[in-house]
Amino acid sequence: MSVRPEESRCPFSGDEPVVPAQYVTSPGVDPHAAAARLRERGPVHPIDFPAGSADHAYVVVDHASVMRGFGDPDISKTLEAAPAWFREQTVRSSSVLASNMLLADPPEHTRLRKLVSRAFLPRRMELLRPRVQEITDDLIDAFPETGEFDLLEAFALPLPMMVICAFLGVPYADRDRFIDWGRVLSQDPGQEGEAALERKRVNDQVEEYFTDVLAQRRARPREDLLGDLVRAADEDDMFTDEELVSTAIFLVIAGHKTTANLVGNGVWSLLRHPEQLELLRANPELTDSAIEEFLRYEGSVDRGTLRTTARDLTLGGQAVPEGSFVHLSVSAANRDPAVFDDPDRFDITRSPNRHMTFGHGPHFCAGAPLARLEGRIAFETLLRRVPDLACTVPPETLPWVADSSISRGLERLPVRIVGKRPRAGTA
After folding, report:
1. Burial degree of 114 (CB within 10 A; 0-12, 13-18, 19+)
2. In whole angstroms, what is the distance from residue 27 CA to residue 1 CA?
């Protein structure tokens, strides 16, 4: 997305300018300038993504149209509304993910969401808080006293994985396979060749693993989230085991990668803006506001997940035929000057902050309370206990991961520290 999208001829009509697939497949260092150029021409544009496909596809780059896209019932989340080839490839390579609530419209989505909505109630989040604090402190205790290391590997990646393992009730010893599974299953669906074969391999491993875990919970009930999901499914008799497995792996992927990117991207943004870093250090009560700005300015989600039109419609003044892919550019909506004053300015005191990183409407992220809790504890503790955090290279030169057009995160974040302050309440 760092490359300037040059106009070409639209492959499906022959007379409309089309944005090349690179816009959503090459994250680059700065996708925001390209989005701004597109937004100046209009809010919705034909795009060649999936690349080379004869199917209609459009990218949406303004806040109002992205918000409408999230909530419009005529823009479907189901595989049934997608082109047949995409549907068949997705189901063939990952039947597990094909059963989760991200690929459903109401009322089916409403039914599936009940499986996870009870997990993120405020009471449960408060019960989890001490464990999140303990994990955060343990990770910081393990930082080298003097030296350089990758903050992603040492902190941003293990923190949410340890939390989600504790939350679900699965062994942290299995974290490496969860990370591998999440890496593969979070890549763009509808792929062919080796990518499709790898997704199928991982799909089978995930299904076998969580089928065994669910059987264990039925045989020996436990007080954890997976135990709660099994009890809810069995008592209500309205969820299949395939849906339980799909929900479990969805929680692992959504609960890990996006929160890891929130922490990594947030630290990166602070290191790029030292005056904001010092402001937050001096005013830790701004942490909640800062997290919302991290989510807006360089959010962990670049683009919304699968959406296709269920009928012909007009979006942002653009005619969009039935069966078209609709790519909602969350990162572009979060920099729309019609909504955000000076949108390219990083300001941890920004208010209001109507960012779209957690979505909008029926598909608003169910895990947002947990992500915010982890972010709050992570940043409060990190900035209190590590007062001299610094990047060892210019932050703007760091590369971004390019394995998915949906999420946005750094490949690495090399930092240097000297010493750590003790935990709160310790000598």
Report:
1. middle
2. 5
CA distance 207 to 21: 32
Query: Would you call 418 helix, strand, or coil by DSSP?
Result: strand
Of residues 127 and 357, the one with the higher pLDDT is 357
Q: How high is the mean pLDDT of the chain?
A: 87
**Under a CB-based contact definition with an 8 Å cutoff, are residues 100 and 112 in contact?**
yes
State the pLDDT at residue 62: 97
Query: Can you give the pLDDT at residue 16?
Result: 53
pTM for the model stands at 0.90
Residue predicted with more confidence, 163 or 179: 163
Query: CA of 29: how far to CAs of 8, 356, 410, 414, in Å?
Result: 23, 20, 9, 16
By the 10 Å C-beta count (0-12 exposed, 13-18 middle, 19+ buried), 242 is classed as middle
Judge whether 289 and 350 are in contact, CB under 8 Å: yes
> Distance (Å, rounded) from C-alpha 409 to C-alpha 319?
33
- Take residue 11 and report the two structure tokens written for it: 């492959």
Q: What is the dihedral of CA 240, 116, 92, 300, to 10 degrees?
A: 180
pLDDT of residue 239: 83
What type of residue is 67? Answer: M
**Distance of alpha carbon 404 from alpha carbon 266, whole angstroms:** 19
Dig out the tokens for 170 from the structure.
């699965």
Distance of CA 46 to the CA centre of its chain: 24
Asked whether the beta carbons of 70 and 64 are under 8 A apart, the reply is: no
pLDDT tens, position by position, 85-101: 888 887 777 777 777 88
- Residue 342's pLDDT is 98
Is residue 64 classed as helix, strand or coil in its secondary structure? helix
| Confidence check: pLDDT of 7 > 60 | no
Torsion of CA 72, 339, 32, 391, to 10 degrees: -120
CA 232/CA 215 separation, integer angstroms: 14
Task: Tell me the pairing of strands 414-418 and 390-391.
Answer: antiparallel
CA distances, 271 to each of 17, 58, 59, 134, 283 (Å): 39, 35, 31, 25, 17
366 three-state secondary structure: coil
| Closest C-alpha among 363, 82, 118 to residue 235 | 118
Q: Helices in 189-284 by DSSP H: which ranges? A: 193-219, 225-236, 241-272, 274-282
Q: At what angle do helices 241-272 and 193-219 cross, to 10 degrees?
A: 110
